[in-house]
Fold:
Amino acid sequence: MSFLFLFLFLAAIVGVFKPYLGGWKRWHFGLAAFASFILVGIFAPEPDAASLREAETSEKGQSAAAAPTGGKVEAAAAARADESNWDYSESTDEMRGTTTKFARVVSANEVDLDFPYGVVNGYLTVRQQKKDGLSIIFSVDKGQILCHSFSDGYVSVKFDDQPIRRFSCTGASDGSSDLAFILNERSFLASLKKSKKVIIEGEFFQKGNQQFTFKTEGLNWQ
Structure:
């Protein structure tokens, strides 16, 4: 039916430009074209609902098939971020135009150092600066780490299931007692980058040796 009205519409359009029926004027053909156009719209077949649903399902399927590439990349990136407990930061010395880089991980356990320090976390920090080069720093929130160069201080370190190693350590130049610089930095860093877990045991004032465990997998350090 709609095809018939479409044919009449086209025939009327031709008559508007060149009347071909005796007694018909252009406006007659124009009126016929308008009426035919309305009837074409009324009698045009409606889209099949099943076809529409099939088309929508197909489009959704194509979208879903295309999505995993980006989704998998984001999921993989998130998984890598979750695997690593390292926090990275930088500080800039505007006067000297130098940048110091840090990577720090917090201990998985806490240790009670008693009054006045209480329960504390341990921190393992990798630092790179132009003046002092590479530094490995073991620190706590509060407390006194007994690690001085004049007393042959050291910390015991266990990388994963490797044998326990001793690393000499020294205190901070400003006298801060809550941190210690671990020496033989390059060797320590090489083992650290390959490790998943590190245990550091240090001696504390009036508390003896205490151990802090660090989840160290995923260190990104050049």
